[in-house]
């Protein structure tokens, strides 16, 4: 199955940079060397067995945009599965940007009315941290209004190549494309229960984007020795599932993607291939290992009586379910 993904937006908004980070394992620091994209650069990325992403990175200079919207209109906008439109938050020329955006939505509605639309407010790192939530809310409202005015429902994300926000947005995008995402979540939840794991996360192999996570059913593992906390009265109590889950960082999935990508990059600089990772920390054990030809799995266990070897065996035994 092939899905066409259009990556559009003004020149310099950061389309090729994000593509090179997500799909080519390049660090953010190298993106300043990228030249402007001439016309359209097409790539095929094999994603999860049969799914192939056909990525169209459309150079954003006005001359190219004008051609996409005139002579190449049908070629560009037909058979689109997903449109990702990138807006540079620091751009001064917003009127022109919005005008091209409206024209693109118009063409999309005609040639690919069922396409999903994602809008990225990119380079959020240029906005002061304290101003980001308000700025994102304001621009989200504006862009959602523009989209619904064209009869299109769009999802807006704030992103930057310098933090995990880009992984969050792209993970959500690929999640929307994967046909069997719900089945994967179900299998992962069963697998997490079988391993007495706190959480299990499935990543795509090349991009390390999050494909699915076990739905958070905490196993009743906590014992006073493990994860015990002191209650108000000084007595030992164990944290409830809800409390422990609440304590987990909301950005943990995309942070993991970002960190593993950085590790893979360091490995490649040393001419070593990254294959697996195991960590035994005082509070938990983490095993990251190949699951199938196209995926990696991360198993997090808080029960100290569970050996990493047992987790590895479980991963091996579960492999066929995820092929
Ligand atoms: P065209 O190919 O002309 O359409 O441009 P493009 O949208 O592909 O832009 P490109 O990826 O070449 O990025 C332009 C510049 O933006 C580069 O210097 C990048 O380093 C920079 N850039 C990309 N993403 C970010 C980001 O999240 N934050 C900041 N501050 N700069 C970024």
Q: What can be said about the biggest beta sheet?
A: 6 strands, mixed
- Hetero groups: guanosine-5'-triphosphate
Euclidean distance between termini CA atoms: 16 Å
Quaternary status of these chains? single chain
Strand content is: 15-25%
Query: From N to C, what is the helix and strand string?
Result: EHEEHHEHEHEHHEEEEHHEEEH
Class based on secondary structure composition and strand pairing = alpha/beta
| Low-confidence sequence ranges | 219-238
- Tally of DSSP β-strands: 13
* Helix fraction by DSSP (H/I, runs of at least 4): 25-40%
Strand order of the largest sheet: 2-3-1-4-5-6
Count of DSSP-assigned helices: 10
Averaged pLDDT: 83
Radius of gyration: 22 Å
Concise overview:
The chain has ten helices and 13 strands.
Describe this structure in words.
The structure is a single chain. This protein is of the alpha/beta class. It is built from ten helices and 13 strands. It has helices at residues 15-24, 62-69, 73-77, 94-111, 132-149, 165-177, 181-194, 241-247, 252-269, 308-322; strands at 2-9, 40-47, 51-58, 80-88, 116-122, 154-159, 199-204, 210-213, 229-230, 236-237, 277-280, 285-292, 295-301. Strands 2-3-1-4-5-6 form a six-stranded mixed sheet, with helices on both faces. The protein has a five-stranded antiparallel sheet with strand order 8-7-13-12-11, with helices on both faces. It has a two-stranded antiparallel ribbon with strand order 9-10. It binds guanosine-5'-triphosphate (GTP). Guanosine-5'-triphosphate (GTP) is lined by residues 9, 11-17, 31-32, 34, 36-37, 59-61, 122-123, 125-126, 160-162. This is Gtr1/RagA G protein conserved region-domain-containing protein.
């Amino acid at each position: 199955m092939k899905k066409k993904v259009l990556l559009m937006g003004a020149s310099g908004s950061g389309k090729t940079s994000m593509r090179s980070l997500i799909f080519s394992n390049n660090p953010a620091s190298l993106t300043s060397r990228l030249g402007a994209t001439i016309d359209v650069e097409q790539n095929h990325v094999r994603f999860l067995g049969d799914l192939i992403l056909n990525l169209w990175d459309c150079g954003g200079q006005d001359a190219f945009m004008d051609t996409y919207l005139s002579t190449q209109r049908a070629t560009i906008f037909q058979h689109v599965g997903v449109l990702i439109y990138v807006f540079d938050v620091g751009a001064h020329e917003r009127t022109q940007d919005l005008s091209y955006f409206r024209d693109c939505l118009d063409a999309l509605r005609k040639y690919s009315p069922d396409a999903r639309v994602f809008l990225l407010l990119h380079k959020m790192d240029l906005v002061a941290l304290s101003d980001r939530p308000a700025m994102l809310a304001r621009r989200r409202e504006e862009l959602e209004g523009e989209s619904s005015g064209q009869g299109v429902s769009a999802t807006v994300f704030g992103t930057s190549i310098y933090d995990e926000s880009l992984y969050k947005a792209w993970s959500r995008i690929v999640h929307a494309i994967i046909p069997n995402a719900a089945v994967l979540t179900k299998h992962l939840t069963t697998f997490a229960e079988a391993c007495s794991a706190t959480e299990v996360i499935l990543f795509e192999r090349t991009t390390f984007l999050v494909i699915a996570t076990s739905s958070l059913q905490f196993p009743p593992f906590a014992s006073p020795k493990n994860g015990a906390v002191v209650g108000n009265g000084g007595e030992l109590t164990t944290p409830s599932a809800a409390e422990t889950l609440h304590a987990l960082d909301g950005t943990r999935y995309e942070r993991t993607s970002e960190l593993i990508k950085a590790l893979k990059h360091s490995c490649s600089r040393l001419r070593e291939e990254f294959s697996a990772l195991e960590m035994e920390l005082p509070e938990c054990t983490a095993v990251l290992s190949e699951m199938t030809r196209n995926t990696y799995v991360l198993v997090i266990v808080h029960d100290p009586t569970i050996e990493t070897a047992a987790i590895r065996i479980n991963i091996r035994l579960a492999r066929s379910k995820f092929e």
